[in-house]
Amino acid sequence: MFKEGLNLHTYVKMALPDHVLQVIDPRLLDNEGYVLNNIRTPRQAATWMNFLVTMMKIGVACSMESPQGRINLKDASAELLKVKDELIQFQGLNGLFFPSSQL
């Protein structure tokens, strides 16, 4: 899939933050269209994009080539739990309730 030294890590890193939708698996966004069909305002869309970008940045930080350059698992886990908590709060404030299987 990748050529000329490009790999998944570099591909995602190059896409951040403006092209995250080009690298994310659409199945992560779609539960019969629920996520994208229920975001109603530009502010909700921007917030949702921030969640995606943050998660992708954590993935990039976890996949640095050098182990010394990687985020440690405790910090990565804490960051992901923070995103999850913020997403749950975002849902409640905006009347958006995604299936728990997507959280």
Describe what this molecule looks like in 3D.
The chain has helices at residues 8-15, 20-23, 34-38, 42-62, 73-94. With 103 residues, it is mostly helical. The two termini are 29 Å apart. The model has no long low-confidence stretch (mean pLDDT 82).
What structural category do the secondary elements indicate?
mainly alpha
- Proportion of helical residues: 55-70%
Oligomer: single chain
Whole-angstrom Rg: 15 Å
Number of strands: 0
- Provide the domain count: 1
Could you state the order of secondary-structure elements as H and E?
HHHHH
DSSP summary: helix tally: 5
Strand content: under 5%
Question: What's the short story on this structure?
Answer:
The chain has helices at 8-15, 20-23, 34-38, 42-62, 73-94. The protein is an all-alpha fold and 103 residues long.
Walk me through the topology:
Elements: H1 8-15, H2 20-23, H3 34-38, H4 42-62, H5 73-94
Helix pairs in contact: 1-4, 4-5
Which terms would index this structure?
103 residues; flat; mainly alpha; 58% helix; single chain; 0% strand
